[in-house]
Amino acid sequence: MKSRFYPSTGALLALSLLPSTGALAQTEAPVADGDQRLGDIVVTAQRRDESALDVPIALSVLSGDELARRGVSNVNDLQFQTPSLEVVPAFGGGQPQFRIRGVGFEDYATNNTPTVGIYVDEIAYPVPVMTQGALFDIERVEVLRGPQGTLYGRNTTGGAINLITRRPTEQFSAGVDAEYGRFGLLKAGGFVSGPISETLRFRVAGVTEQGGGFQRNRNTGEKLGDADRLFGRALLDWTPSGSATIQFNIHGGRDRSEQTGLYLFRPFQTRGYGGPLGPVIPADTNRRQTGWGLSPTFAALAGYDVDDKPHRDNDSWGASLTGKFDLSDAVRFTSISSYEKFKRRELADWDASASRESDTFWGSDVEVYSQELRLSSNGDRPLNWVVGGYYSNQTLDELFLTDFSESLGFITDTSYRQKAESISGFGQASLALGERFAIVGGIRYEHEKRKLRDFATKIGGTPLFLDGNRNATLDEASGKLALEFRPRDGLLFYASASRGVKSGGFTVYNSPNANQIDAFKPEILYAYEAGFKADFARAVRFQGSLFYYDYRNQQVLGTIVNPQRGLIGRIINAPKSEIYGGELEIQIAPTSRVRISQSVGYKYGRYKDFSDIDTTTLRLVNGLYVADTIDKSGQPIPIAQWSYQGSISYALPLGKDFGLDLQGDYSFRDELPSFLGPTYDLDERWIANATVTLRPAKGNWWVGAYARNLFRTKYDLTRNFFLPNANIASPGRPASYGVRLGFSF
Question: pTM (2 decimals)?
Answer without folding.
Answer: 0.89
